[in-house]
Amino acid sequence: MATRRVTVETGTVSFDHGAQYLPASDSAFAHTMRAAAGRGWLSDDTLVGVPGMSSLPRALADGLNISQQVEITRLVHQDDCWHLTGPKGQYSARSVVLAIPAPQARALLGDADPLAADLSRVIMSPCLALMAALPTDSPRPFPHRVDPAHPLAWIAQDSSKPGRSAAAVAWVAQAGPAFSAMHLEQTPEAIAALMLPLLCDVIGADPDQMLHVQAHRWRYAQTAKPLGQPFLQDHGRSLYVGGDWCLGPRAEHAWHSGREIAREIRESAHVV
Q: Of 86, 153, 183, 232, which has the fewest Cβ atoms less than 10 A away?
């Protein structure tokens, strides 16, 4: 659930270049989304974050002590304590929750870790995303379009969503798994050059009129083969690993995984 904001000559434009909306098939998750809509974090009609998809996790994080942009490159459990190491320093903790893609969790823990075999069963697919802004008088043929057979499997007119800027017509295009895997290792500039003509062809836009063009590489975007359970844990080391990939490809699955991890931690600590 990511939103990127950029400044163009006509103002500020935002792009939801990750999850596009929040379908709720489970009653508990649907209740949480209705509560979020009641607080103004979510549009009740379209199930999108307001004024961007990142608004919901940002609101849920209010009041929490969160350190961002802190990379962890090594995890060691010793003397009943986790020791975390990264470029910005060292940290220690009694418990660790890894809410990151399964391949990244396995790489961080190492192939010899007891959880590595389960993590290796998960298969994740990449997704290349294109963000493009056009003048306000540009074509707007549809709010969104899905075509799994096309290289750009999903195209959304982000500026048509509630609470979005009217400074430009903002589009987000997400490539399908085959196209994404084929071009994954190219530079963002090369990816944008490949995707932009495809987008313009679908929406009937002139590429020379673009106010902003940018590509983003999601290396672990979709869950092709989930774990099949809400999370992994190692009681002896107080380690928990989870994410959407445990149950499926959507934000709803990530929410379920996180809730079950929290429940386990609370019960282990005898917290009521």
A: 86
